[in-house]
Amino acid sequence: MAQGPSPPQRSRDFGGTRQALWAGVRLAFGVPAVVLSASYLGFGALAQQVDLEIWHALFSVVTAWALPGQVALVELYADGASILAIAVAVALTNARLLPMAITLMTLVRAPGTPRWQYYLAAHWVAVTGWALAMRDCPAMPPEQRRPFFMGISLVLWTVSLLGTALGFALAGSVPSYITLGLVFLNPIYFMLVVAGDVRGVSRILAAVLGALAGPLLYLATPDWSLLLTGVGVGSLAYLVGQARAGRT
Amino acid sequence: MTEVSLWWPFAVMLAGAAVTYAWRALGVVLSGRIAPQGKLFEWIACIAYALLSGLIARMILLPAGPLAEVPLADRLGAAILGLAVFFLARRNMPLGVVSAVAALMALSWARGAGVL
After folding, report:
1. Any domain includes A203
2. ipTM score here?
């Protein structure tokens, strides 16, 4: 995450799929693992505060593993919302996973890979691993990209479970300003991941305009704001980028 | 703890997981038809970044959970500080995260203690 912009070249050949997997593991076993486990401290704490069992929280991490949707689910559950209302809210919150999965699964495609492998890998499409893989994978031989992504994701998945359990155990025993800091960690980390890893004029424009439009549209129409932000702002940024590329 | 309150959350979470995975699986279905260097790929990537960025901004500016109790100025100030430190320190992720979170904790502590 510390490197500057680099042109996509085939400069990162790890020598094999197994080595690529370990390269992903090593990359994740640093700042990403620390911050993601700390973010899940907040989720574990939240689950404890609404009187769920630790197994509920861990089950959610294993099966869903997309933090904003999980937080929305627990908050709505605590409010007594119906299962249908919860499912709709979670689906809208997680709609970002569709374009994320399309782009990443296109990028990691390699000849001779059984199709089920992509359906398996897709379960781990989430902000941190996606941003790292989108940044690093174009420079790798195609057959090493999915193992690299899986290496990152399996580390992050594991530390998310540990963070959740620890957060559940700690909740209520630390002062409230510390709990607030833990909950704040998640959006801040996501913000810096996107700010640090986004490349190219149209994608940078999409990220900046999305940050401005997202909250404003949410005030206007909470239900449709994410969809409008994604398709509207994303398309606008794409067109501006295309126009600029056409001129030069 | 009754039967219902033990098993019902599992059902709710399974429903949440199912709709979440549906997006990912649909992504795999659609991914085979797109060229990674093509314009369609770039358009979808722009949508992904805009969606992600909009969601993150909302989590900071209009949070639903415990952060809603923190004044907007504190959340915004801490986030801007984190961004500034991150870029000034040559994209140093730990330093950016720690400075933003520490700022928010310090502000919350100060308000709680009556210093602010």
Report:
1. yes
2. 0.87
